[in-house]
Design brief:
The complex is a heterodimer of chains A (108) and B (117).
Chain A lengths: L3 E3 L2 E5 L4 E6 L6 E7 L6 E7 L5 E3 L2 E6 L4 E6 L8 E9 L2 E4 L3 E6 L1
Chain B lengths: L3 E4 L2 E4 L4 E8 L5 E7 L6 E7 L2 E5 L6 E7 L2 E7 L7 E8 L12 E2 L3 E5 L1
Parallel strand pairs in B: 2-11
Antiparallel strand pairs in B: 1-3, 3-8, 4-5, 4-9, 5-6, 7-8, 9-10, 9-11
The chains are: A mainly beta (108), B mainly beta (117).
Chain lengths: 108, 117
């Protein structure tokens, strides 16, 4: 029931793009994305609802494929501040599960 | 400041001690949660309170005891913990219109880093 994220870890140079995927075995009602920097609280980035549109947040956007029960997070022209661990969270009925996490490191 | 305040930030306790973790939110949220975050593991939901009523207890050992006196405060009482309970304990809150409706994003506290010796 816990969504699986891929890749587990990625290293980027500043300005490069990245995609993080989140897959569930259950039908999804919504998908959340969070970022957690080392030693800090996870921070909510965005929510995608079933039947909703692609969302954006600065240069970070996400899509939600309801049929495939997948969501992808797109980071374009990455900045050093994007480094952290990204978690998806999936809502299926009354249940909510966080994904396995993707560690993203942006280097100069 | 995330809007959710947890104290203490760090806690070292012996296996025979009793301690409590505190969480406070003034965001007007009506749901509060305790999560456990261990190294190399996903966030594990421990307890959920909706409208001050406990609605979930994910098979958490009885040595962890939650308390939610009102919609702004949440406690996690700890006693006779084991070394494997060492982890980051995160409190979160959200606005949930009613049980079963969409949860519009969690706001997390900075966590309590717990070490059991």
């Amino acid at each position: 029931q816990q969504p699986v994220q891929s890749p587990q870890a990625v290293i980027l140079r500043e300005g490069e793009d990245a995609v993080i995927n989140c897959s569930s075995s259950k039908a999804l009602y919504s998908v959340h994305w969070y970022r957690q920097k080392h030693g800090e609280a996870p921070v909510f980035l965005m929510i995608l609802l079933k039947g909703g549109e692609q969302k954006g947040h600065e240069k970070i956007s996400a899509s939600f494929n309801e049929k495939k029960q997948q969501s992808s997070l797109y980071l374009t022209a990455s900045q050093l501040s994007y480094s952290g661990t990204y978690f998806c969270g999936t809502e299926t009925g009354n249940q909510f599960y966080f994904g396995t996490g993707t560690s993203l490191t942006v280097i100069p | 400041e995330t809007g959710v305040t947890q104290t203490p930030r760090h806690l070292v306790m012996g296996m025979t001690n009793k301690k409590s973790l505190k969480c406070e939110q003034h965001l007007g949220h009506n749901a509060m949660y305790w999560y456990k975050q261990s190294a190399k593991k996903p966030l594990e939901l421990m307890f959920v309170y909706n409208f001050k009523e406990q609605t979930e207890n994910n098979s958490v050992p009885s040595r962890f005891s939650p308390e939610c006196p009102n919609s702004s405060h949440l406690f996690l009482h700890l006693h006779t913990l084991q070394p494997e309970d060492s982890a980051l304990y995160l409190c979160a809150s959200s606005h949930k219109k009613a049980p079963g409706q969409v949860n519009y994003g969690y706001t997390f506290g900075s966590g309590t880093r717990l070490t059991v010796v």
